[in-house]
Amino acid sequence: MIRAVLFDLDDTIVDTTRLAEMARRNAIENMIRHGLPVDFETAYNELLELIAEYGSNFNRHFDYLLRRLELPNNPKWVASGVIAYHNTKFAYLKSVRGARKVLLELKKDGYILAIITDGDPIKQWEKILRLELDEFFDDVFISDYLGVKKPHPKIFKRALKKLGVKPEEAIMVGDRLYSDIYGAKQVGMRTVWFRYGKYRDRELDYLDYADFTIESLEEVPKIVRGLNNEEKERSDSEVHAD
Amino acid sequence: MIRAVLFDLDDTIVDTTRLAEMARRNAIENMIRHGLPVDFETAYNELLELIAEYGSNFNRHFDYLLRRLELPNNPKWVASGVIAYHNTKFAYLKSVRGARKVLLELKKDGYILAIITDGDPIKQWEKILRLELDEFFDDVFISDYLGVKKPHPKIFKRALKKLGVKPEEAIMVGDRLYSDIYGAKQVGMRTVWFRYGKYRDRELDYLDYADFTIESLEEVPKIVRGLNNEEKERSDSEVHAD
């Protein structure tokens, strides 16, 4: 009997990839508008490389970009990038299509809901609070805060313990086959791979750990209901067989 | 003959004190709304103390606030503070009453305009660009970028050199008697103390260095015009006396 549905945050509940791409493009455009003497494609590709190397939570993307482009350190250009990046982030932060509807449906059906995510705890909470999604979730587990990252079993075990459910009573929904699906399966949870965003064709080596693959979040309530009905029928027939 | 008017940024061109107070109040309110178990006055006063001790550019105000209040490190509360702080900052960032009109008037009269400010270069440029004030200024000098802070004569001298004017051809307008007025006077500039914001009754030991004291920015064009007319009359009468 499934009692808890656990979700990853980025590219599962929050439309992160789309947002980050828009924010980065707008940042470069605004830097050029304020005098950055480089064409868009050169600067944008350099920024993507830099982010790939230093990580998306590195907080000096724009001044490092100037270094990479062998330009002088100009705080006006850096500020232009920062402003456009933040404006986009705040204006276009959106939940994934169908996420709110699905959460409401699951909530009404009485399921325990939680988030398990990697990333900077303050930034992750910022997304949840800005989208006013916090009321949907019974708890939020952020790996950087707990000191273990997905797919480490510890983060899943701690979440299940805190929520008071057994692994077989929980299902994990996430966009990453490695951290979400392989991770949850290791501790005995059911798994739904949400094939979405930049990981939709990656980490396919771990596809076997996915019990279900979906292209729309709106499949989740059906899957959970289906699992619970199956189990009910099975136990009914067992009772009947006694 | 005055040819250049130099302005301080915070509480001279940008209404910083008012904005910071609103942003901090809203941050505390939002933290309490998201469960911070402390009354407003306690938390707000603790935050002000912390800012006084660590400086306003310290970037961990809200997690240090939790430490000072002997509360657990809760990223949800920190994020609540950060969100409200940023939202306020972006929504309420305003220029000082009359600033834009004065800049336009001086610009039309052909004066060279510049900013000389302390503070983090990216944050200072962010204010200028968000308010779209950059087109008014021929140059912006930010002490943290140059490595010397007001009232050090070097920053004033560098600005004058870059702008191509002599000290006696320049006038400094600022809200701080120590850093702006005493600083500019040391290198031989004229000075206008703008009595505004949290420094309106402070650093009065340096009052003698102010050639003019104003309560409204709109006095600036009159003062500059007055000085130039005086000088013109003086040189006319000298010519006449020959």
Automatic annotation (TrEMBL), chains A, B:
<dbReference type="InterPro" id="IPR036412">
    <property type="entry name" value="HAD-like_sf"/>
</dbReference>
<dbReference type="InterPro" id="IPR051400">
    <property type="entry name" value="HAD-like_hydrolase"/>
</dbReference>
<dbReference type="InterPro" id="IPR006549">
    <property type="entry name" value="HAD-SF_hydro_IIIA"/>
</dbReference>
<keyword id="KW-0479">Metal-binding</keyword>
<comment type="similarity">
    <text>Belongs to the HAD-like hydrolase superfamily.</text>
</comment>
<keyword id="KW-0378">Hydrolase</keyword>
<dbReference type="GO" id="GO:0044281">
    <property type="term" value="P:small molecule metabolic process"/>
</dbReference>
<comment type="function">
    <text>Catalyzes the dephosphorylation of D,L-glyceraldehyde 3-phosphate in vitro.</text>
</comment>
<dbReference type="InterPro" id="IPR023214">
    <property type="entry name" value="HAD_sf"/>
</dbReference>
<dbReference type="GO" id="GO:0046872">
    <property type="term" value="F:metal ion binding"/>
</dbReference>
<keyword id="KW-0460">Magnesium</keyword>
<dbReference type="GO" id="GO:0016791">
    <property type="term" value="F:phosphatase activity"/>
</dbReference>
<dbReference type="Pfam" id="PF00702">
    <property type="entry name" value="Hydrolase"/>
</dbReference>
<dbReference type="InterPro" id="IPR006439">
    <property type="entry name" value="HAD-SF_hydro_IA"/>
</dbReference>
<protein>
    <recommendedName>
        <fullName>Glyceraldehyde 3-phosphate phosphatase</fullName>
    </recommendedName>
</protein>
<dbReference type="InterPro" id="IPR011950">
    <property type="entry name" value="HAD-SF_hydro_IA_CTE7"/>
</dbReference>
